[in-house]
Amino acid sequence: MGIFRRSAQVAPEHAMLVYGEILKATRREGFFRDCRVPDSLDGRFDVLCIHAFLAMRRLKAIGSEESAQLSQALFDTMFQDLDAALRQIGVSDVRIGKEVKKMAKAFLGRVQAYDAALGAGDGAALEDALARNVYRGEADNACGEADKALVVLRLRRYMERADAALARRSDAAVLAGDLGFPDLEDEEIRLEQ
Questions:
Q1: Residue 116 and residue 89: Cα distance in Å, rounded?
Q2: In the 8-state DSSP scheme, what is residue 9?
Q3: What is the pLDDT of residues 117-148, one digit of tens each?
Q4: Which of 1, 13, 88, 101 is most buried by a 10 A CB count?
Q5: pLDDT score of 127
Q6: Residue 142 contacts residue 155 (beta carbons within 8 Å)
Q7: Residue 10 has what pLDDT?
Q8: Is 98:2 a contact under the CB 8 Å cutoff?
Q9: SS in 3 state form for 64-122?
Q10: Which tens digit of pLDDT belongs to each residue from 184-193?
Q11: Among 39, 42, 68, 64, which residue's Cα sits nearest to residue 56?
């Protein structure tokens, strides 16, 4: 498969350790309960994309060969895991390649939108990207018109807080896989409803 490039300098078990930290953060019930991300394959993929993007953004900021190799190994590990998950749910061998490429393209599109918004400090652009990607433009259906802005704002605040928390972590901690994603119940993320 053409999208996977082995990073010979990163031990597979280290990439799995970092990926495991990302998966742990994506499994928090609050994303599906409080942020009303659809608890579906697509919704879970989007929460994974958010966390993988944030980790890779921080690795890119380190700017070393080691961080670039870890970022590539993390990408490879994530898409190998997604490939295995698709096979497990019964996607045929004939369709697997197309589905994984489609997911990779979706991930890279999200990376571009989220990175531009966070880099510019443009909360409105980040909210637009989240509404379009996470809720597929159907946040009204996910939570009702009255709560739509609040739910998207909460997810935006989570991303901003997680990005800031990762930026404060030492390079060595991040490279070791100690990502420390914030809790959704953090006062700066939680909104009065």
A1: 34
A2: T
A3: 999 999 999 999 999 999 886 655 555 555 77
A4: 101
A5: 95
A6: no
A7: 86
A8: no
A9: CHHHHHHHHHHHHHHHHHHHHHHHHCCCCHHHHHHHHHHHHHHHHHHHHHHHHHHHHCC
A10: 876 555 554 4
A11: 68
**pLDDT of 4-51, one tens digit each?**
454 458 899 999 999 999 999 999 999 998 888 999 999 999 999 999
Q: Name residue, tokens 């749910």.
A: 89
CB of 71 within 8 A of CB of 54?
no
Amino acid at residue number 55: A
Is there a contact between 1 and 100 (Cβ–Cβ < 8 Å)?
Answer: yes
User: Do 179 and 163 meet the contact criterion of CB atoms below 8 Å apart?
Assistant: no
Burial 108-136 (b: 16+ CB within 10 A, else e): eebbebbbebbeeeeeebbbbbbbebbbe
What pLDDT is stored for residue 141 in this prediction?
A: 56
Tokens 């061998």 -> residue: 93
Query: What is the C-alpha end-to-end distance of the chain, expressed in Å?
Result: 47
Asked if 167 and 142 count as a contact pair (C-beta separation under 8 A), the reply is no
Query: For the purposes of burial, counting CB atoms within 10 Å of the CB of 137, is it exposed (0-12), middle (13-18) or buried (19 or more)?
Result: exposed
Please enumerate in sequence order all residues whose Cβ is within 8 A of that of 48, keeping only pairs 6 or more positions apart, or say none. 22, 23, 26, 78
